[in-house]
Amino acid sequence: MSGGVDSAVAAARVAEAGHDVTGVHLALSKNPQSYRTGARGCCTVEDSHDARRAADVIGIPFYVWDMSEEFDREVVQDFVAEYEAGNTPNPCLRCNEKIKFEAVLDRAVALGFDAVATGHHVRKVDGRLVRSVDQAKDQSYVLGVLTAEQLEHAVFPLGDCTKDEVRAEADRRGLSVADKPDSHDICFIADGDTAGFLNRRIGERPGPIRDEDGNVVGEHNGAHTFTVGQRKGLGLGGAPHPRYVLSIEPVENTVTVGPRASLRVDSITGVRPVWSGSEPLTEPTECHVQLRAHGEVYPATVWQSGGGDGPELTVRLAEPATGVAAGQAVVVYEGDTVLGSATISSTSRVRAPA
């Protein structure tokens, strides 16, 4: 129970269905004051109180589990390491994978519970992950990294309703979080300054900003503070046309910029594929892929092949996409059903015919 309206209503629904339910709130920081306060984060200092009050109204036991060490190791340190390697991680996706559906689920099963129920807007049909009926709130992308075994022990009570319906139900049940705003931003970056957070962890590392021809057009204080597709904050105000980050080279500490057209890619390679809703697609298969949370869905041809360091996923987009960053997830769908996912390791740019 995060302290928000979704997890409160999810807990109320499973309790009303007759299950033996225990509410659990995750303490993710040894120093809660270092995380967000108020309504802007999902793991704020007020949230445990909101979760406890919801549990009291529902009439279920409530505990706070200290997951701060696991969260720091699996999410915060991974976030820093990925940016240092020139990638763009998704910490909420990583938290779902390593904390909520690995560490928490392992502990819950060890204590004798059958499953973990969450307030994610997603459905589970015949053991497979399926988009929520509320397409605007669908969270299947951030859960696409889960394994079939993890899904077997997961319950998603809210996938058959909209967010407005969830809020109305919370109000009917007398839950004080009925009108609580949704969470936003990264919970462990209290001031919202991702670049500043990374500089404090990694240190400033000045280097060149180059154009596609290799010409130096500016300087930066650390390649780790940029992400592919970024336009603002480049310090290139005198450029005649808008420039975007095209690539980040951490070894040479170089950021390459260029026009938006140069962001277009039609080929993506992913590593560490996970197949929760299908056997591995070892033959080219037409399906759809999503490349970021709440992002556009693209028709594509997808297949898995053996790589030198393990299996790789190859994605050929039917239409070019822009701003695709290494470190993000590519989630593969058949209609509304998740087949699998992989972590993007590289992309290829679309080239105009000669």
Short characterization:
This protein has 354 residues and is an alpha+beta fold. The chain has helices at residues 5-16, 47-58, 68-84, 91-110, 148-152, 163-172, 194-202; strands at 23-27, 62-66, 116-117, 122-125, 128-131, 154-155, 207-210, 216-220, 244-249, 254-258, 265-275, 285-290, 297-307, 310-321, 329-334, 337-349.
CATH topology of the largest domain: Rossmann fold
Task: Give the second-level CATH assignment, the architecture of the largest domain.
Answer: 3-Layer(aba) Sandwich
Mean pLDDT equals: 91
Number of structurally distinct domains:
3
Weakly predicted, low-confidence segments: none
Indicate the CATH class of the largest domain. Alpha Beta
Task: Strand order, main sheet: write it out.
Answer: 11-14-13-12-15-16
Structural category is alpha+beta
Organism: Nocardiopsis sinuspersici
Family: Belongs to the MnmA/TRMU family.
Catalytic activity: S-sulfanyl-L-cysteinyl-[protein] + uridine(34) in tRNA + AH2 + ATP = 2-thiouridine(34) in tRNA + L-cysteinyl-[protein] + A + AMP + diphosphate + H(+)
Main location: cytoplasm
Task: Describe the structure in your own words.
With 354 residues, this protein is an alpha+beta fold. It has three domains: 5-172, HUPs (Rossmann fold); 206-262, SH3 type barrels (Roll); 264-349, Translation factors (Elongation Factor Tu (Ef-tu), domain 3, Beta Barrel). It has helices spanning 5-16, 47-58, 68-84, 91-110, 148-152, 163-172, 194-202, and strands at 23-27, 62-66, 116-117, 122-125, 128-131, 154-155, 207-210, 216-220, 244-249, 254-258, 265-275, 285-290, 297-307, 310-321, 329-334, 337-349. The chain has a six-stranded antiparallel β-barrel with strand order 11-14-13-12-15-16. Helix 1 packs parallel to helix 2 (47-58) and helix 3 runs antiparallel to helix 4. The longest helix has 20 residues, at 91-110. It is globular. The termini are far apart. The mean pLDDT is 91. This is tRNA-specific 2-thiouridylase MnmA. ATP binds at residues 26, 119. Keywords: ATP-binding, Cytoplasm, Disulfide bond, Nucleotide-binding, RNA-binding, Transferase, tRNA processing, tRNA-binding. Residues 137-139 are annotated as: Interaction with tRNA. Residues 197-258 form the tRNA-specific 2-thiouridylase MnmA-like central domain.
